[in-house]
Amino acid sequence: MAILTCTCFSTTLKQDVTFNAVVPTPEGNEQVTDQQTKSRADGDGFPVIYLLHGAYGSYASWGRFSNIERYAQQYGVVLIMASAENSFYQDMAHGNPYFTFFTEELPTLVKHLFPVTHKREKTYVAGFSMGGYGAWFLALSRPDLYGKAAAMSGALDIVATYEQGKQGIIDSPFPWENVFADPEHLAGSKADLFALYETDRAKGCVPALYHACGRSDFLYGMNKAVHERLVSMGADVPFVEGEGGHEWDYWDRTIREILPWLCED
Fold first, then answer.
1. Minimal CA–CA distance to 211: which of 188, 233, 230?
2. Greatest alpha-carbon span in the chain
3. Mind spelling out the 3-state secondary structure of 231-252?
């Protein structure tokens, strides 16, 4: 496989950005040959997964704390990992436009640099914690871009996340007033995943969704409630419970369980 750290100037963010890419070799775990590269370029391209980090994290989080690089080779997918600060992957009210970067500039750059598919059906997004919310948010906001979205330990109810953070129930490192123009009125807004789901369903274009959470995770109750609410709305969304908390051991184990779901035809 090829593991690359790329730095370039982002016209969207108006600054240099760094992201990691993992590109599997079509045959074998280590070698890249000229013939392999040519044969792959003639095909449809690799499926691609945009992997999102959580609060306090960065583009380097997945590579540092998980075995995701080996899994990419096993499943034959390209991985793209970029940073989003503690932005919830929003176009921040007072800050960087990360939603635009992740849905417009970054995919365009990736398609020019790497042998990835251009098909929505084989373009996926996944993440944990803040990145779990981000995965569903990007996919539900732009269902034309992503076929599937998976969240692990996701802060999927943005209204409850804000309220619990304000009350000190959960750790809340987010600059809410900088991220959202009016965090007191998130329900029904473009940041509300339930509202986004309803909009997509009305348009007849809903990405496949999946979420998982450990029973010892402080977001477990939120995930159960989110699943129950989505089911009541008529959604068919797998929710997988397991042992573990808000930790890398759980996320590393769970992404291995999610990859077959993402990559199945």
1. 230
2. 59
3. HHCCCCCCEEEECCCCCHHHHH
Dump pLDDT digits (tens) for 39-60. 333 368 999 999 999 999 999 9
Query: For 139-156, what is each residue's pLDDT tens digit?
Result: 999 999 999 999 999 999
Is residue 17 classed as helix, strand or coil in its secondary structure? strand
Asked whether 205 and 199 are in contact (CB, 8 A), the reply is no
C-beta separation of 157 from 227 below 8 A: no
Tokens of 100: 């635009």
What secondary structure letter does DSSP report for 184?
G
Question: The sheet that has 148-152: what strands, in order across it?
Answer: 2-10, 15-23, 78-82, 48-52, 123-128, 148-152, 208-214, 239-242
Dihedral sign from CA coordinates of 34, 20, 121, 203: negative
Name which of 210, 206, 207, 208 is nearest 239 in CA terms: 210
State the pairing for strand pair 123-128/208-214.
unpaired
Task: For residues 258 and 246, give the distance between their C-alpha atoms in angstroms, rounded to a whole number.
Answer: 17
Output the CA–CA distances (angstroms, integers) from residue 211 to 27, 52, 106, 259, in the order listed.
31, 14, 24, 12
- Between CA 261 and CA 265, with CA 263 as vertex, the angle to 5 degrees is 95
Question: In sequence order, what are the residues at sequence separation of 6 or more whose Cβ sits closer than 8 angstroms to the Cβ of residue 196?
Answer: 137, 140, 141, 190
Q: What is the pTM of this model?
A: 0.93
CA 73 from chain centre, in angstroms, equals 19
* Cα separation, 159 vs 179, whole angstroms: 13
Residue with tokens 């995965």: 135
Nearest 10 degrees: Cα torsion 103, 105, 106, 107: 70
